[in-house]
Design goal:
single chain; mainly alpha; globular; transmembrane helix; membrane; DMT family transporter; transmembrane; YdcZ
Length: 153
Amino acid sequence: MNANLLLPIALTAFAGAAVALQPAFNGQLAVILGSPLRAALVNFLAGASVMAAVVLVGGLRNGFPAGETLAKVPPHLWIAGGALGAMFVSTATWAAPKVGAGAFFATLIAAQLVAALALDHFGLIGLDERPANLVRVAGVALLVAGAWLVVRG
């Protein structure tokens, strides 16, 4: 493996393991608060607070973007990531306690790979085209089959 990829892959693996904890914590919070949507809101408020502190510290060191830079951001980019994140966290908070972490994440990751393969193949939303060759399709098919086994199991 390319040495330049070790740190990003290691951090991604760590983040993936950490994300596995999120629905369990949020599910417990949803029970206490009486709503998965309330728990998701708390999740985003906590996350926004942490990110605001990190960005503030980074901005003090490296500066903040200029107003004209901010004005160039297309309107959908201000909303899309957060809206999709809210959908994910709300769904995870509600579904994971019902189906279990294994079934939830198996289904989630299989669906992510199917969508990612299509995004890559067609070069959608600004991604470089990476053809869905036989090896990549077979890998996704194996993951979908594995997810089915985990959900069934």
